[in-house]
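Handout for the seminar on molecular recognition.
Each group receives one record of this type.
Step one: identify the two inputs.
Step two: read the structure output and locate the region that could contact iron/sulfur cluster.
Step three: write two sentences on what you found, then compare them with the reference statements printed after the record.
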Amino acid sequence: MTATATHCPYCALQCGMTLERVDDRIAITPRDFPTNRGGLCQKGWTSADLLSSPERLTTPLMRQTRAAPLLPVTWDEALDRVAADVRRLQAESGPDSIAVFGGGGLTNEKSYALGKFARVALRTSKIDYNGRFCMSSAAAAGNKAFGVDRGLPFPVTDIGTAHAILLVGSNVAETMPPFVQHLADAQRSGGALIVADPRRTPTAQSAAVHLQLTPGTDLALALGLLHLAMTDGYVDKEYIADRTTGFDDVWRRAVTWWPERVERVTGVPVEQMREAVRLLGSAERAMILTARGAEQQSKGTDTVSGFINLALALGLPGRPGSGYGCLTGQGNGQGGREHGQKADQLPGYRKIDDPAAREHVAGVWGIDASELPGAGVSAYELLDSLGTVDGPRALLVFGSNVVVSAPNARRVDERLAALDLLVVADLVLSETAARADVVLPVAQWAEEDGTMTNLEGRVLRRNKAFEPPPGVRTDLEVLSGLADRFGCGEKFPADPAAVFAELRRASAGGIADYAGVTWERAASTGGVFWPCPDESHPGTPRLFRESFPTPDGRARFVEVEHRPVAEDIDQDYPLYLTTGRVLAHYQSGAQTRRVRALVDASPEPFVEAHPELALRYGLHEGDAVRVTSRRGTAEGVLRVTETIRTDTLFMPFHWSGAGRANSVTSDALDPTSKMPEFKICAVRLEAVPAEAVQHDVAVS
Ligand code: SF4
């Protein structure tokens, strides 16, 4: 068999690779693609292991009652059961009694088909997806400032040409290691890296300046940096006058954030802030990049706005080799939020409450605009409402493992248990699938064609390399089979190329315009950057060169003010907990906890604490510890490290069972993006007997 050029299944860097069957194994070879330039991280290198995992599901499973076991059934039995239950529940409780939950790893075609399936086949407004947990604050802030949300408004290779880069709340050295090449390019040519993070992560260790701030004070830091940029003479007044609006209102806020006040709130020394501003302000090319650390807060949107304000004040967006960008996390986090999985969106990044948008999309879908439901509710609000008096009675989950990945996960456990019907499409029996009434075994990334939109807004083709195992269907085939049972199967083709062709028409004229990105162009040219309105258009690698897509063509400063975290530390819960990822695992771990090499590299949940803190608590490296918040507990092995603040603990969120960090995290939501405050909650720490520590490792 010949080698197939494709992309990694995991994160938004979408590293290029080739897959080839050699004897009885699958060989992965890194491919030279602009984002990874021949590099892969350990997750990418081992990604093919899951294709032949003995834990693959190859037959639908169903249980008759909640107490009964999941047993194999035929596809017809499974899909008939889902359709019959959905019809019954909707007859009893209306269209919104059925909810749909998608994922940021689904291809563009699946994201599009899922949004359409919810609105056209189920007629429900209740759809959202796990991307709400990842990038929604940056998306909201980007829309406010620039009139568009594209993670990076420039190719990732531009980063290597920057002379100063401020990275806020991102540990790329562990989450997307090949990305570090671009930072290293910049550093090799004398560029300075500045990292803002409560932990001295491997990324922060390579920085010229590490701003080790108190968790949840990023916005105060942004205001303080803007204050210093103004007082130290680095603000680009000509750019502000020519290309922006609203600076005076923002400055009225920032002027009250004098350096010593910011130091008191953030814990970052004034001299470090001043040095960061000097590096950014004196660089000919400078970038400010934010990620989950800034975004996963109850004020995440305002926090990102604070850093965009700084970028605008320095005159960066639209300047060559400069700008603001968000580092998207999930593989199709960008495309997943453009094509209708979000509660308030229609394809092409259209608003579902915009009459013109409704007319356009309804026309493509062959229905009357009046038949389209309105906006639903955000991901956590949706999960929180399941099985309540007015809430959905059934949930269909595609590409998400909410039992592990949602905040305040014990509450989510309760709500899932209250459903009449839980349906999960997955490739393995994830923690969420294990609780389902019907489990639908679906194909993996290398077993189906599709397009993804990476962190740069580059639409690329992920090519099929192998046939899925017998008994497994693609998500598009599942949706098509279900739609058949609702009498609209002809509207849901299972061929991804046909779905993409329709997606192009639905997105035409929208903000995320894919009309000119053909199936072939996405594959043959190494991708096309949206917007791309027609087939003769080259795509748009760099946005904002001449103007911003706002009504007056100017970027908007957005007035923001710092406020405390939703749950601050106190006598009972005296420590901050922050959560994140480790090198060897991806998101809920449903996939990576089933790859032996990754489990060997990172076998168990752990809790990081500073030596001073460990001493104060009489704890030692390797001790079993329990972290407790007002919502629940999580256990892990103590790692004592000087890289973390003395008032803060860190836990990765990849594990389930007793090691589930999200049993502890806060469900306080950002009022605009509805992003949960994963990054900060108040906890206490205690030792537990070693034998009491349990967590789920799924490798068989
Ligand atoms: Fe690249 Fe991300 Fe895959 Fe690692 S997980 S190989 S960084 S796409």
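Reference statements: The pocket of iron/sulfur cluster is lined by residues 8, 10-11, 13-15, 36, 40-41, 43-44, 176-178 (CB under 6 Å). Residues 73-133+332-494 form a domain with the Rossmann fold fold (CATH 3.40.50.740).
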